[in-house]
Amino acid sequence: MPGKRARRHFSQLSEFERGLIIGMKTAGWSTRRVAGQVDRWESAVRNCWEQWTREGTHAWKTGSGETWKTTRRKDRRIVRQALVDPTVTRSMI
């Protein structure tokens, strides 16, 4: 469609955008209208609104995903050891 702005793909909503979405939806705006106003996909607006109505918060959940077993410093050391001596096995590292 000529003249239509490209949507931002695969980017997270900022706290400001989440607040805007919740404010507009609370004011009675449609999901489509809110999505057009904040230039986001309707599904992103819908997911934000559903989280707000379900949990009463729009903040990102912390602690999701697997925890790290090593620190960044240890990771760098492991990579450095592997590069210095490629014959060393991972059990030796």
From TrEMBL:
This is Transposase IS30-like HTH domain-containing protein. InterPro entries: Homeodomain-like_sf. The gene is NCL1_35029. SUPFAM superfamilies: Homeodomain-like (SSF46689). It is found in: Nucleus. GO terms for cellular component: nucleus. The lineage of its organism: Eukaryota, Metazoa, Ecdysozoa, Arthropoda, Chelicerata. It comes from Trichonephila clavipes. It comes from the Eukaryota.
